[in-house]
Amino acid sequence: MSFIAKKCGIQLQPPSIILIYEDQVKNNTRKRIMPVRNFSKYSDCSRAAEQLKNNPRHKTYLEGVSMEQLQKLHSLLRGHLVGQSLTQSLEQIPLKEIIDPEENLNKLDDKELAKRKKIMDELFEKNRKKKDDPGFVYNVEVDFPQDEELKSCSWDADSDDEF
């Protein structure tokens, strides 16, 4: 069977993921309501999204839906269970995808570090200039002004003596 996902959303009561999809065989648009069971305000959104996507009943329908979108929908459901309004939950989703430059990544556990690296990779790919882009220049040379006196750092002053 071939299904093309058109829209994906949530229903708060009862907690469910709603998928609007197109059935290519019958050439019609359908709506599928997938209840989210055993999900509480303490549940892990990524694990719940993975379980839903791998569920044999929903697997063929959710092939066109990304794991990130399912995780965001589950975090909206969790925000509702905590008592937040929908607008408050929507405001918190982009904050989870921002990386603090002052954060020490050495102190994170492996799961959180992998999450931060994935966000950085996505941001890099989004901002990367490719050969086909209109503003692409192959060999960019930039001359930096030498008006100011070069400052030496204390950390590299000692290293010259060692070599």
Your description of this structure?
The structure is a single chain. The chain has a three-stranded antiparallel beta sheet, with helices on one face. Helix content is 39%, strand content 15%. Helix 2 crosses helix 3. It is extended. The longest helix is centred in the last third of the chain and has 18 residues, at 110-127. It is an alpha+beta fold and 163 residues long. The mean pLDDT is 87. The chain has six helices and three strands.
In short, what is this structure?
The chain is 39% helix and 15% strand. The protein is built from six helices and three strands; from the N terminus they run βββαααααα. It has a three-stranded antiparallel sheet, covered by helices on one side.
Describe the structure using short key phrases.
single chain, 3 strands, 163 residues, alpha+beta
Question: How does the major sheet shape up?
Answer: 3 strands, antiparallel
Summed over residues and divided by their number, the pLDDT gives a mean of 87
Low-confidence stretches: none
Strand portion = 15-25%
Task: Work out the number of β strands.
Answer: 3
Helical region count? 6
Shape: extended
User: Span between N and C termini?
Assistant: 68 Å
Task: Give the proportion of residues in helices.
Answer: 25-40%
Order of helices and strands: EEEHHHHHH
SS content category: alpha+beta
Radius of gyration: 24 Å
Order of adjacent strands in the largest pleated sheet:
1-2-3
